[in-house]
C-alpha cells in the first residue's frame, strides 16, 4: 500500500523542505491539541475539591485562548506547505505527461486511445495529488497523532485503562487492510471504464456530423448510456466499499468508549483515577475517532493513488521509437536529399509499404509524387518527417544519414501540409502564425495571396480575427486546406511538403496556387503529392508509385512519351476537365 510513497520519493526529495516544515507543524499542532483536554480534567478536579479560584480560572482561560491562536498560526503553516506541495506535484506531472506526449511518435498514439490519455492526465493526476496532500495528512494523523494520544492517555492517566480501551484496534487494522485491497482492485476497474467513456465521448463529438448524416443519434445515445451506466456501477462499487469504513470504525470506537466509560467508572470508585482524569480520558477517546478514520482515509487515498500512479507510469514508461542521436551532426542547409534503396514497413503491418526507393533531390527542385490511393506517397514523406524509426537502406541529407541529426533540426527545415488539416480553435491569424511566431500584416496578406485565400478571409465576419471553431468547423474544406498551406508558406521552409493538399480546391484555384508556388519557392525544395496530375506537371522530377515501388520516374514530358499509367491518367483527367467545362 505504502509503495505509492516510494514511487513519489523523487518529488518528496525535491520538496524536502516544504514537507519537513509541514510534517513538523502537523506534529506541533497535534501536541498542542492534547493540552486542552488535560486542562479540562484539571479544572474539574479543582471544582470537585473546591480549589478553583477566580485567578486560576482566568489563567486557564488565557492558556486556552493562547493555544487557539498558536494552533491557528501553525495550522496555516502546514496547510499551505502540504497542499501547496500537492498542487505543485500535479503541475509537474501534467507538464511531464504533456512533454512525453509531444515527444512520442505516431506509433504511441496508435497504441493509446486519446480518451484514455486524457483520463490519465486528469482523473488519475487528481488521485496522485490527493496522495501527496491529504494522504500525507492522514498518514501523520493516523500514526504520530494517534501515538501521542495513546501515550498521553497512558502516562498521564492510566495504562491499564488505556490498553483495555484499545483492544478493538487490532480488529480494525485487519478489517481496514481487507477493505483497502478490494478498493484498489475496484478503483482500477472504475478508472479503466472512465477512460473508455472518455474516449467514446471524444469520438462522438468529433464525428457528430457523420452520426447525424447516418441518423445514428439514438443508437449513439443508447451506447453512451450503456457506457455511463457501466462507469456508474463500477464507481458505485468503489463507493460501496468506502462506505463500510465509517460504520466499521464507529462500531469499534463505540466499543472503545464502552470499555473506557465502564472500566474508568470502576477505577474512579476505587480512587485509582480522579473524576477529572476520567473526563480527560473520554475526551482523548473522542479525539482518537479522527485518527481511526484517518486510517481508513489513508488506505483509501493510498490505494487510489497507487492505482493512478501505476496507470500514469505505464504511459510514461513507453518510449519513442524515434530518438535524437548521442552525438548529433550539423548542417546549415539541406542541399541534397538522397533515398538510397529505402524500404519501410509500418510496425505490425504485413508487407513493405516502400520497397527499394531511389531518389536524388537537389536543393531548389520541385518533386511530384503521384500514384493510386495507398501507393505509398504519404509514407515516402514520413521518412523525411521522421515519424517512425529509420527505414531500411539509407536516407541521407548532404550525405549524412538523417537519423544522425536531431529531430528539431530536421523538422525545422520542413513545412508540412498533411492530408488531414489540423486547425486550432483560435483566430485565423493565430492559426496562420502557429509555426513561425509574429508576422506583419503585409507578410500575411502576401502569403494569403499566394494561397488564393485573401478574398475568402475578407469575407469572414472579423477577417483574420475570426475564430475558426473546433478543428476549423466554420471554414469549408478548401479554405481549411489553403489556411494549412498558408501556415506552411509563412514559415518559408527549406523543404515544403504538400501531401495531397490541393484536393479540395477547384482546378483554376489550384493552377493559381501552383503558379505562386513556382515563383515563391525558387531556390528551395518542394515535394508535392497529388491525385490531380496538373498539380505536378511543372515538377523537375515526377515519381509514380505503385504498391510502394517506383514504376515511373522522369519529367512530365518524358513520362508523356511513355505509354504507361501516368500518360493514361493524365489524358483521362484532361478529358474529364473538358467535359466539366
UniProtKB/TrEMBL annotation:
PROSITE patterns tied to this protein: ABC_TM1F, ABC_TRANSPORTER_1, ABC_TRANSPORTER_2
Domain ABC transmembrane type-1: 21-304
Transmembrane parts of this sequence: 16-35, 60-89, 127-151, 157-176, 249-269, 281-301
Membrane topology category: Multi-pass membrane protein
SMART domains listed in its UniProt record: AAA
GO molecular function: ABC-type oligopeptide transporter activity; ATP binding; ATP hydrolysis activity
Every ABC transporter domain range: 337-572
GO cellular component: plasma membrane
Keyword RNA-binding: no
Compartment(s) where it occurs, according to its Swiss-Prot or TrEMBL record: Cell membrane
Keyword GTP-binding: no
Keyword tags: ATP-binding, Cell membrane, Membrane, Nucleotide-binding, Transmembrane, Transmembrane helix, Transport
SUPFAM superfamilies the UniProt entry points to: ABC transporter transmembrane region, P-loop containing nucleoside triphosphate hydrolases
PANTHER family, sorted: ATP-BINDING CASSETTE SUB-FAMILY B MEMBER 10, MITOCHONDRIAL, ATP-DEPENDENT PERMEASE MDL1, MITOCHONDRIAL
Protein name: ATP-binding cassette, subfamily B
Organism: Gracilibacillus kekensis
Amino acid at each position: 500500500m505504502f509503495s505509492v510513497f516510494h514511487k513519489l520519493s523523487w518529488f518528496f526529495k525535491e520538496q524536502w523542505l516544504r514537507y519537513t516544515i509541514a510534517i513538523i507543524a502537523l506534529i506541533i499542532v497535534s501536541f498542542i491539541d492534547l493540552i486542552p483536554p488535560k486542562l479540562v480534567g484539571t479544572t474539574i478536579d479543582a471544582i470537585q475539591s473546591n480549589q478553583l479560584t477566580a485567578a486560576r480560572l482566568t489563567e486557564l482561560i488565557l492558556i486556552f485562548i493562547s493555544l487557539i491562536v498558536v494552533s491557528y498560526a501553525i495550522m496555516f503553516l502546514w496547510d499551505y506547505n502540504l497542499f501547496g506541495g500537492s498542487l505543485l506535484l500535479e503541475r509537474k506531472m501534467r507538464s511531464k505527461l504533456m512533454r512525453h506526449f509531444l515527444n512520442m511518435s505516431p506509433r504511441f498514439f496508435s497504441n493509446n486511445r486519446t480518451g484514455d490519455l486524457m483520463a490519465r492526465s486528469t482523473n488519475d493526476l487528481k488521485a496522485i495529488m490527493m496522495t501527496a496532500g491529504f494522504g500525507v495528512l492522514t498518514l501523520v494523523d493516523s500514526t504520530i497523532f494517534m501515538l501521542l494520544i495513546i501515550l498521553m492517555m497512558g502516562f498521564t492517566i492510566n495504562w491499564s485503562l488505556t490498553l483495555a480501551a484499545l483492544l478493538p484496534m487490532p480488529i480494525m487494522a485487519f478489517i481496514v487492510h481487507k477493505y483497502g485491497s478490494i478498493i484498489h482492485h475496484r478503483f482500477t476497474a472504475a478508472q479503466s471504464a472512465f477512460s473508455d467513456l472518455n474516449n467514446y465521448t471524444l469520438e462522438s463529438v468529433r464525428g457528430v456530423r457523420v452520426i447525424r448524416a447516418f441518423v445514428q443519434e439514438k443508437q449513439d445515445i443508447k451506447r453512451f448510456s450503456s457506457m455511463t451506466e457501466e462507469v456508474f456501477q463500477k464507481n458505485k462499487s468503489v463507493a460501496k466499499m468506502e462506505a463500510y469504513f465509517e460504520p466499521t470504525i464507529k462500531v469499534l470506537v463505540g466499543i472503545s468508549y464502552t470499555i473506557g466509560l465502564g472500566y474508568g467508572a470502576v477505577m474512579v470508585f476505587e480512587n485509582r483515577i480522579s473524576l477529572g482524569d476520567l473526563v480527560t480520558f473520554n475526551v482523548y477517546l473522542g479525539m482518537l475517532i479522527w485518527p481511526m478514520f484517518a486510517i481508513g482515509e489513508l488506505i483509501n487515498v493510498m490505494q487510489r493513488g497507487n492505482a493512478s500512479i501505476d496507470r500514469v507510469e505505464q504511459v510514461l514508461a513507453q518510449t519513442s521509437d524515434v530518438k535524437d542521436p548521442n552525438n548529433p551532426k550539423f548542417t546549415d542547409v539541406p542541399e541534397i536529399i538522397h533515398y538510397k534503396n529505402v524500404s519501410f514497413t509500418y510496425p505490425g503491418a504485413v508487407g513493405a509499404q516502400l520497397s527499394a526507393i531511389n531518389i536524388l533531390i537537389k536543393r531548389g527542385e520541385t518533386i511530384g509524387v503521384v500514384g493510386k490511393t495507398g501507393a505509398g506517397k504519404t509514407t515516402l514523406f514520413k521518412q523525411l518527417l521522421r515519424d517512425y524509426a529509420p527505414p531500411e537502406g539509407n536516407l541521407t541529407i548532404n550525405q549524412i544519414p538523417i537519423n544522425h541529426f536531431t529531430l528539431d533540426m530536421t523538422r525545422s527545415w520542413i513545412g508540412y501540409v498533411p492530408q488531414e488539416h489540423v486547425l486550432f480553435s483560435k483566430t485565423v491569424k493565430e492559426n496562420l502564425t502557429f509555426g513561425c511566431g509574429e508576422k506583419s500584416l503585409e507578410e500575411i496578406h502576401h502569403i494569403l495571396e499566394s494561397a488564393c485565400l485573401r478574398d475568402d478571409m475578407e469575407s469572414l465576419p472579423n477577417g483574420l480575427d475570426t475564430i475558426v471553431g473546433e478543428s476549423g468547423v466554420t471554414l469549408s474544406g478548401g479554405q481549411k486546406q489553403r489556411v494549412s498551406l498558408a501556415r506552411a508558406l509563412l514559415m518559408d521552409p527549406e523543404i515544403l511538403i504538400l501531401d495531397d493538399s490541393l484536393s479540395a480546391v477547384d482546378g483554376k484555384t489550384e493552377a493559381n496556387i501552383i503558379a505562386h508556388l513556382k515563383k515563391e519557392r525558387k531556390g528551395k525544395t518542394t515535394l508535392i503529392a497529388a491525385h490531380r496530375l496538373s498539380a505536378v506537371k511543372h515538377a523537375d522530377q515526377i515519381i509514380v508509385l505503385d504498391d510502394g515501388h517506383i514504376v515511373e520516374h522522369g519529367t512530365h514530358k518524358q513520362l508523356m512519351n511513355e505509354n504507361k499509367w501516368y500518360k493514361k491518367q493524365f489524358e483521362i483527367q484532361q478529358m474529364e476537365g473538358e467535359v466539366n467545362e
